[in-house]
Predict the structure.
Amino acid sequence: MAEVALVSCREYSLRTVKDNILEAAGLIGFDPACFRGARVALKPNLLSAVQPDSGVVTHPVFFRAVAEIVLDHGGKPVLIESPAVASLENAMHAAGYDPIVRELGIAVADIREVRRIACRSPKLFTYFDIAAAFFETDVIVNIPKFKTHNLTYITAAVKNLFGAVPGMRKAQMHMRFPGREEFSEMILDLYGAFLAGFEPPKRILHVLDAVVALEGEGPGSSGSPRHAGAIIVGEDALAVDYVAVQIAGLDSRLAPTVNSGFAREFGVASPDDIAVKGETIEAMRLEGFVPPRSPGMTAFLKRDLPRRIMKRLFVERPVPMEPSCTLCYQCQQICPAEAISPAGAGRKVPVFDYGRCIRCFCCQEVCPEGAITIRKAPMQWLLRCV
């Protein structure tokens, strides 16, 4: 049985957030005294260089609260994160992490150094190259943001570990596994590696920032911030993610990292194995939380008919929009299929080659202006009308 603490938190006040995290830890029997003398990895979600109130990144006050708890109990925190495109320095600056790191003396790991970690019961990957700094810590505190995700439906504790894979290697994995199910299985392989790939195994605590969540076309700036007023804490990432999906009123069957995760039996194997402490899900459930639109019929891409025709007729596509686009070309940098070119003469948006586009939606994910929308394919509009 996995215990998950669900506590109410109405605002990003440092004292309030800190007290609520400590309350949640106590509800599941997690003693912060285990931080004493330990090097503690802090893994927030710094997807890109965006402002803290965007709902895209772990809020700096939330991060600071976790860091102070570690320091208060004699631990040595180390920030470990790899944004999708932006440099870690730029992401930290935009999100307001710089003064926190300086004031508290938090070490920031060099994410360019990698080490190999083996998977537990892999389906797609037998090993991953992750930031070497994780191997040099004793405890890991995963500090994700609760968001919708156009590929995996939601992103929370399990998906946040993908940030352990440095930089553009993540885009390469999107290229290899463009479909929702296979990409999610790869993420679960990585989660299994974190559970069993360290020697000795590391204790991992997941502290989910859902004070403000992101709904709609997440996980980047195309989504919309939504006050959820919750902090969710647990030592089983699948259990934490399931509770988050439930308070959002979403369908966990559509979240493959949760649904397939139960089948993998890394920890909890079903909702019956989860005990919620603190607030009840019913009391915290949100009304009208907006899910992402379907990432498209990517299963069609595996069939024998010409891929260009299949994608153009049946699969949504990312479309850059004027005047929001600033031609920063972060979309071009992240695109694993190299399907995006600079704007031509007289154009104000990049050029997308939809024949090459694999519909991984990395471009929409990293766009700092929320300037990339998802447009339905012709056959999807027709089927909807019918």
Notes: The radius of gyration is 20 Å. The chain has two domains: 2-284, 298-385. Residues 2-284 form a domain with the Rossmann fold fold (CATH 3.40.50). The chain has 14 helices and 16 strands.
